[in-house]
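We give its fold:
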Amino acid sequence: MNIVTDEISTSMAAGSWIRKMFEKGRELKNTFGEDAVCDFSLGNPDVPPPFAAKAALEEIASNAVKPLGLGYCPNAGIPYVREAMAAYLSRQQQTSVDASHVIMSVGAAGAMVSFFRAVIEKDDEVLVSAPYFVEYGFYCGHFGGKLRAIPALTPDFTPDVEALAKAINPKTRVLLINSPNNPTGCIYSEEVLKKIAALVDAENERREREGGRPLFLLSDEPYRIFAFDGCTVPPILPLTKWSCVLGSFSKSISLAGERVGYFLVNPAMPGAETLISALILTTRTLGSVNAPVIGQRLAAALLDETVDLSVYDSRRRLMAKVLSSAGIEFPMPKGAFYFFAKSPVEDEMKFVDALLEEKILVVTGKGFGFPGYIRLSCSVDEKIIARAENGFKRAVERVLA
């Protein structure tokens, strides 16, 4: 008897490489102890939230015992939180937006799923540059959509704009970008983003003439504040009226467990109000109802705060040193907190297994749609990064022997 659908059975078999390695890490830690394992598999932000979070939580707690202190809020979010977010995003995106263009969500993932539910029909395509975040395919696949990945240009993983242009077809509903990128740490330049936006505008001009549905440019930005070496992350909204932005506070202020994010619709978009109304409906009917009220209030209180980015930058530099000493090739990530390194051998699973023998956990590039590479998270203490150096060297020697 089939307990679940064939589609879910297939998805379960494919699984998430990140979660698989997470479970393997738990097994190794239980067997050999925490100090024996170097786990670079999961991007779980470990840098503490800003100190101001303590006072903000105390204020929230003082109001929690009032009537409806922790009750339902409007599906789109607490009104004053949406207003604060609009001001914040207006500065960030260099575009004037108001609260009616912002919806609070259950993390960036919840925002994306609600959006796909609102705009994706069976066999619609979501176009993305590979490597990409592992769950994108599941998010659009729930509603009959298909993720179509176009390999990025190596060695720096800049999107291949010409290949993206050739891939756009009448079924392409969303062009999804993620910068700073997970897993590569690549920050897309303004020049590249303008070219991508121009593709979207040109396609929509054609569709407007022929009466087709629009192509959206969707920017997934949970790592926006993680930009190093003087790099900046260009705003998306000024580039095309067909743009939307989503993000979260999971990484920027270490609120991953609170599950609070947002979705921003470009106010210049034709039909923006209709899209917002659809997103409010899908937020409710997918079961989220509203983003967590504690998380919303906490995020609003900390909009001008960030975690200590110098900690992540220091880890990034140390990881680069450790990988270089082992002879592992990689582009230096300009953003986020990951490395996407080239495997010393073509089949990266052999290298992943060799690293496991050294009690080092990484994620295979296949899980991100880009075989031949591995992803490492820098969301770990520097002691763990340093401790892994000899293990990396031994693993490289083993697979090259």
